[in-house]
Amino acid sequence: MATGTTAATSARRASGWIALLVLFGIASTIEAATVSHVFRFLPLYLGTVNVSPADVPAWTGFLNAAFFLFGLPLVPFWGVWAERYGRIPIIARSAFVEMAVFGLLWLSQNRWEAAFAILLVGFQLGNTGVMLTALRAAAPQGRVGFVISLFGVSPSLGFALGPVAGGWLVDHNVLNLHTLFAADAALSLASGAMLLAFAREGVRPPASPGSATRLALDALRLAFTGRLTRIVFAVFGLAYFAPQIANPFLPLLVVRLHGSTAGVAGQIGIVFGASALVGALLSPLAGAAGDRYGFRQLLGGACVLAAASLGTLALAPDLLWLTVGAVALGAASATAISMVFSLLATAVPEERRATTLNLVLVPIYFASVAGGLAGALLVREGLNTVFWTGAAVALIAALLSTTLPALSKTDS
Question: To the nearest 10°, the Cα dihedral for 396, 398, 401, 406?
């Protein structure tokens, strides 16, 4: 009787899907906006911590790989701990880790201190999958693709707002790159506190018995043994590996066309803010189109568009063409991510769904490490080399997407 009363009370107090979508969306937007300052301004920031201009490209690639390296072994555990101890604390944990990372970047005085701060980023991984699991549990039937796609707007929106706002603040001497990270630390603290204060999850299924290690290994086995998930994860990994080979070096293209690093932060913000904004606007439209025409078809098309946009970036003669290529790449990336999330949320069997969604970003993490390392090696042959290589990988991902099984209307 007491158990039933507790469950009923928890259910009454649980946040509805709209409230969760808003809270998760705010947190995800803040995370993307603040992290975008590292991605987009890292080549400029490295100059402030005594990295020579000749060493900046290689350090940019290696540090982008380091973003995810040390946190990878813990990724399967976050889903297990979320089901055992609560999803909201595990999600909020990411914001508090980000606060620590940005605080250290604010205080760093040399490349090694900055590298140590970036290595800690890996410990904030695993929050997106837990958010998706919570949203999937709360979303109404028949609207899963739409709800997931609405959530998919938030990282794109953050990656749009972050570079534009950060670039303007730096170019107008309101903040420098170090104090920009201090502001990011404060925003991350506010995000984590907001989640703990206002987000309430519903009643979770009873946690599975056994050690966390065994449950994490079981989660990996469940997620990677289904034919659908194996193919989706392979396509997702390649589709993300393609731009990630090139992404760390996109700011250096702006520097190359601009002619110097002076006053270039604002240009970087405009170019890549525009690309992310288009991605944010397209994400819900892509979700609705996927519900109607098929997630598999749109995923393959997004990979082809990514290949074309990477080629455009390699050939861009001026900032206008560079912006066009970046916008196309942003649209392709947002569509691909939305289609993968929707495919897994609708087509994976119920008994595998939660564990699969908790691990949905594992292909991104591996692709980011591999992409950063590959880019750091390829950039020695010139900036264009990384973009042509990325285009070739994106075409391979498009071909692989054709092997995905067709889904019936009832699957979505």
Answer: -150
Could you tell me how far CA 17 lies from the centroid of its own chain?
Answer: 21
Kindly report the CATH number assigned to the domain that includes residue 298: 1.20.1250.20
Q: Which two tokens stand for residue 150?
A: 């609405």
Packing angle of the helix pair 319-347, 127-138 (nearest 10 deg): 50
Give the max Cα distance, the chain: 72
The rounded distance, in Å, linking the Cα atoms of 75 and 91 is 13
- The first and second tokens of residue 141, run together, are 């039937």
203 within a domain of the structure (yes/no):
no
The SS3 of residue 360 is coil
Tell me which residue has tokens 């025409």.
293
Task: Tell whether 51 is covered by a domain.
Answer: yes
Q: Which of 1, 44, 23, 13 is nearest to 263 (CA)?
A: 44
CA atoms within 13 A on the CB side of 175: 18
Q: How many domains does the chain have?
A: 1
130, 78 contact by CB (below 8 A)? yes
| pLDDT one-digit tens code per residue, 18-36 | 889 999 999 999 999 999 9
What tokens appear for 358 in the block? 């908790």
- What would the pLDDT profile of 47-102 be if each residue is shown by its tens digit? 999 999 989 988 998 888 887 777 778 888 888 888 888 899 999 999 999 999 99
Range(s) of the domain holding residue 248:
13-196+211-411
Q: Are 36 and 158 in contact (CB under 8 A)?
A: yes
CB 336 within 8 A of CB 303: yes
Give the integer Cα–Cα distance in Å for 70 and 101.
14
| Of 289, 19, 27, 223, nearest in space to 138 by CA | 19
pTM score, whole prediction: 0.74
Q: How far apart are alpha carbons 203 and 77 in whole angstroms?
A: 20
What gap in Å lies between CA 300 and CA 345, rounded to an integer? 18
Written as one letter, the residue type at 354 is A
